[in-house]
Amino acid sequence: MNGLRAVIVCLVLACAASMSPAVAVTPAVVTSARAATPSWSALPVPAAAPPVTVSDLAARGPDEAWATGYEQAADGLRPMLYRWDGTVWSRDTAFPGAGEPGLLGKVQFVGKEVWIFHNRDGAGEILRRSAGAPGEPGEWSAVPLPQTLWTYQDFAAVPGAAWVVGEDDTGLKVLHYDGSGWTAQSTPDGVLYLMGITARTATDAWAWADTGTGTSVLRWNGTVWRDAQVPLPPDSNVHTILLELSGRVTIGGSRYTDGVARTYLMTSNSDGNAWRTTHPPLGDTYTEAMVRGPDGALWLPVRSDRAFQSRYARVDGRRTTFSYGPERANAIDVEPRALAKAGPALLSFGTVEIYGSKPNLMSERLEG
Predict the structure, then answer these.
(1) Which of 128, 135, 243, 262 is the most exposed place for a label (fewest CB within 10 A)?
(2) CB-CB contact of 243 with 249 (8 Å)
(3) Residue 277: how many CB atoms within 10 A of its CB?
(4) What is the C-alpha to C-alpha distance for residues 298 and 243, in angstroms, rounded to an integer?
(5) How many beta carbons lie within 10 A of that of residue 101, not counting itself?
(6) What global pTM score does this model have?
(7) Per-residue 3-state assignment (H helix, E strand, C coil) for the chain
(8) How many Å apart are CA 182 and CA 153, to the nearest integer?
(9) Strands across the sheet with 182-185, in order?
């Protein structure tokens, strides 16, 4: 027994000796990891006339981002434009029609210019802002559409081309701008409505459409629009399409099973001919605000389970994680509406409703 007791005592001492350094080091390691974890911070935004609606957010880099939407004036809607300079948000009211009824839509960067779709009291036009000389602000100009539409559904622009899709009293309209003038483009038979459009180049544009047989994805090759033959899930729709310079395409939408919507993501290889479909745990999240983050993962705002904090999802392959924005005192609804990659950071722009008031503007940033 004495020999056995001696063996047990030796084992206990050996285990204690081997564990003690780890116990001493672990708190420091955990503290360091927590200190290095990036977190969202709130950015002040000059107030608009609430209630406000955010349309889009786009960033060229860490020092330039633009957010669009509209506010509620006494006599109707007014366009709303904000610029981020890397330090603060400021309001821009120098564009044509800034004080007139209307609203602003999608923002696109075309070369060194900024292009923004403007519904100017029912008439559509593209606002263009030049880069300007060093140290001087750029100048705004407008390119009017060749006709007025009942609805303006979406807008896309790249060097050498721009598209506006919508409807008039004769039905679907796809208006194409080649830098000098406008033409109307036709779509395949059976297309009833175009819900959105995006483009990588002047000869590579994608659109998602409502057809007589369900949702379909179309592709422009510089000459004609064709069915892209994307194997969408059955009973599904499309919210957004992300086009990347590598050739990869990511589609976000929702599918219906037994009457319940469930978010899906589809990603192609660089050739665009092989697709992988996943169903991350996002519920029925609308994926229109989804972006590819600086870390290579997909990011999107999701419905929060906390009234006083926003919530974001990060989807990296088959792994989905969530993070929360900063706590906002007395908030009853914090809703980021758009996300953008701004250099090594992520920017969000949306609305926050404080108890007893109407929704006004908010912005948050995730660095690191």
Answers:
(1) 135
(2) yes
(3) 14
(4) 13
(5) 16
(6) 0.88
(7) CHHHHHHHHHHHHHHHHHHHHHHHHHHHHHHHHHHHCCCEEEECCCCCCCCCEEEEEEEEECCEEEEEEEEEECCEEEEEEEEECCCCEEECCCCCCCCCCCEEEEEEEECCEEEEEEEECCEEEEEEECCCCCCCCCCEEEEECCCCCCEEEEEEEECCEEEEEEEECCEEEEEEECCCCEEEECCCCCEEEEEEEEEEECCEEEEEEEECCEEEEEEECCCCEEECCCCCCCCEEEEEEEECCCCCEEEEEEEEECCEEEEEEEEECCCCCCEEEECCCCCCCCCCCCEECCCCCEEEEECCCCCCCCEEEEEECCEEEEEECCCCCCEEEEEEEEEEEECCEEEEEEEEEECCCCCEEEEEEECC
(8) 17
(9) 151-158, 161-168, 171-177, 182-185
Q: Which domain holds residue 337?
A: 2-366
Considering its fold, how many domains does the chain have in total?
Answer: 1
The size of the chain, in residues, is: 368
Q: Residues with Cβ < 8 Å from 67, sequence gap 6 or more?
A: 54, 56, 57, 81, 82, 83, 84, 89, 107, 338, 349, 363
One-letter amino acid of 116: I
| pLDDT per residue rounded down to tens, the chain (368 residues) | 444 344 333 433 343 333 333 333 333 333 333 444 679 999 999 999 999 999 999 999 999 999 999 999 988 999 999 999 999 999 999 999 999 999 999 999 999 999 999 999 999 999 999 987 676 778 999 999 999 999 999 999 999 999 999 999 999 999 999 999 999 999 999 999 999 999 999 999 999 999 988 999 999 999 999 999 999 999 999 999 999 988 999 999 999 988 889 999 999 986 667 899 999 999 999 999 999 999 999 999 999 999 999 999 999 999 999 999 999 999 999 999 999 999 999 999 999 999 999 999 999 999 97
What residue type is 155 in one-letter code? F
Task: Extract the tokens encoding 356.
Answer: 């007893």
Name the CA dihedral angle for 148, 150, 153, 159, rounded to a multiple of 10 degrees: -10
- Per the CB < 8 A criterion, the answer to whether 149 and 173 are in contact is yes
CATH code at position 264: 2.130.10.150
